[in-house]
Amino acid sequence: MTTLEHAVERDQLVHAYLFFGSRGTGKTSIARILAKILLIRGIEDEKLQQQIIQSVDDGTLVDLIEIDAASNRGIDDVRDLKEKVQFAPNIASAKVYIVDEVHMMTKEAFNALLKTLEEPPKHAYFILATTELNKVPDTIQSRCQRFPFRPIGEEDIIRYLQNIADKERIDVSRGALRAISRHVNGGMRDAISLLDQLSSLEKVTEEDVRLRIGESIEEEVEELWIALDNRDRKTVVDIINSLQEKGVSLEVFLRQLLSRAREELHTCIEKKKEILDVTNRIDAIFQALRNLRVSPVPSIALEVALVELCMDESDYKISKSAKKVKDVKEKVAKIAKSSKEKELKESEKVNKNKEEESKSFVSEEINKNVLDETWDEITSSVKTPSVQMSLKDAVVISVDQNCVKLGFSSNFHKDKINNATASIEVEEAIRKRFNQDVRIECILRGDEEINQSYKKEDGDEVNVVDAVSEIFG
Fold this sequence. Notes:
Elements: H1 2-9, E1 16-21, H2 27-40, H3 46-58, E2 64-68, H4 75-84, E3 95-100, H5 107-118, E4 124-130, H6 138-141, E5 145-149, H7 154-168, H8 174-183, H9 188-198, H10 206-213, H11 218-229, H12 233-246, H13 250-270, H14 276-292, H15 298-309, H16 313-316, H17 320-350, H18 355-381, H19 385-391, E6 395-400, E7 403-408, H20 411-418, H21 420-434, E8 439-444, E9 454-455, E10 461-462, H22 464-472
Helix pairs in contact: 2-3, 4-5, 7-8, 8-9, 8-10, 11-12, 11-13, 12-15, 13-14, 14-15, 17-18, 17-22, 18-21, 19-20
């Protein structure tokens, strides 16, 4: 806020400000302080100044208009504002509009507000506040001086709460204050509100805080992290069940787990250790957070994401029965390939001018059969470690009109490659290898994936069952 303080000292205040940051970080409080400065600027009568300031605190000053954009978000509300903003202030030296949660306004309302911000009356000032800056149009942002409000540090919150506790004679332990500060994620307003809720207790302890917020998850986060290290699926499921029994928010738990993963990532980077395992966990946690909000049974989304992280190499290997099916598929492919090659040679003898058609035929064979033979090479050429790991789980199912269909044994790996960034990287790796543009499609693989048709030498269609019979007699 140093820049804003200097602007006040030098009387270089502008007509529009935009305060943005997470909830409870002081945006509205600073807006009211700035409003008081604007409202009494140029007024020499100290008694009148005090009257204006008191009216702001009481919420009775007509020249200070506070608008909740979540409730007054339409173009009609902004048109009403535009009409009234032209009138001079009644008591103060200015009219100040504080618009909270401005990102909730409609597109039409933003367009109407923009015209007022471009040419505001000399007596009018706007202070916009939002928790989601990305939803505020650039045209609005460009007309405002922007000030970010960052989460308040734990120690700062503890000191401020201790000051309140001393003044209000609230007996609270240091551990309780720390538990409150960690829970609110940098939001001072939430911290003060929580302390107020607990102030009726004779002595506020850390356990009282945990009971009030319905969570005591530091130990569970660490236990889960160790379980993931040990690939202990049972412990993972037990911890999730325990959290539900305690009434702990799974979303809160995942955010705490994400913080733990971030710490581990930084540690690995500093010590120059392998980070693939940590980045996979971060990806899985992000996926679980997204699925948590749409799943009818949120715990399942969490269990699946974390249990899949416990899978080891043996889980990714093809079972013996699946291996036999794969062997059959490869032998069927060889029979088909031999037949196709013979057809190609005969076609070249009959008509050498059909070069383009022949190239197309060869290209199809390269995309299907040679992809199987060169898959390890293609996988190794992918640079992103997490994408490379998931790609190792894939097998080529089929190729149809430059579409390569990949089969995965795990939803986790399928969804990873389905990500737009990962898909582009895989398609680029295939393009570099064969100098041909392709697109990929990801599915869960099953035995039915090999049920494809091939051509015999005499031109008749052969099914997988027939081919198997031919192979094994």
